[in-house]
């Protein structure tokens, strides 16, 4: 059972922020994130009619596969999935908004509903989290998920035109601004920029979020999760884990880590590396192993829990959960496996006295012993 939050009450007269609440828990124990949303939606075997509902029964384009619209047309299904994860032991659930920008929804002709879709999804998750908080007496949190979109700023979609981009930074900022507004108006506690395969896209999301916090909304904790696409240790746009961390640390995330693409065993060395180059807390929510020939995930709840238990034993993580192929059964075993282990203690400083730069790799500049600048590459 988690430590009661009142044990970490702020000084008299000081209002406790959401960042304070979550940080207090992270100092005491390893928190648990939920598992795959798409995996669970597939188990419901929903039809085109389920995705359309009454509101979109005459919509011109097929909607089956647009999981995010289910928060509007089948909120009962999404609510139950959230509830199942919470009852399995998740402290934090993610909103069903991975593709809820107007950029991604344009494929379905629903770009005009982006704000409404995000707000509805946040409200469904909020309802589930609040109900289980009341039922168990343990505070549960909602993370508003901001996915990578189906566009990329760093890579051209045309082999013939390597200079071409099908979206601009400003267009992505506007899309993420609208998404974040819907999530915040729906009541999320955290904003999670996740599955980052192109750091330029993530920077657009972070810029939008930070502007909202400066101009309109009370700040919420920011979580950032990148995706290392294979054992080379790089994102799809070519960055190493260290370079990725350096690129987004200006946003002062409460948590940073990795999700998707890899199973826990394959992800371990990259989580280890990230933990050594950040003062933030570390989150890790891998897939249930690597996909098999049929695209399915074979890692059982017990197998995955044992991998993440090893992460906990070695002090690598602060938040664990699951991504593709994971279910409430996975989360239940993961929560049980890590509950008795102390969380990672973030270092007070990293690379103190150095100027850190990054492109596809990281560069560390420091002052040499004779007072002159020295430049070198810093690896893990």
Automatic annotation (TrEMBL):
Protein EC: 2.1.1.13
InterPro entries: HCY_dom, HCY_dom_sf, Met_Synthase/Corrinoid
GO molecular function: cobalamin binding; metal ion binding; methionine synthase activity
Domain (Hcy-binding) ranges: 19-338
Pathway entry: Amino-acid biosynthesis; L-methionine biosynthesis via de novo pathway; L-methionine from L-homocysteine (MetH route): step 1/1
Signal peptide feature range: none
Annotated family: Belongs to the vitamin-B12 dependent methionine synthase family.
Entry protein name: methionine synthase
Species: Molossus molossus (Pallas' mastiff bat)
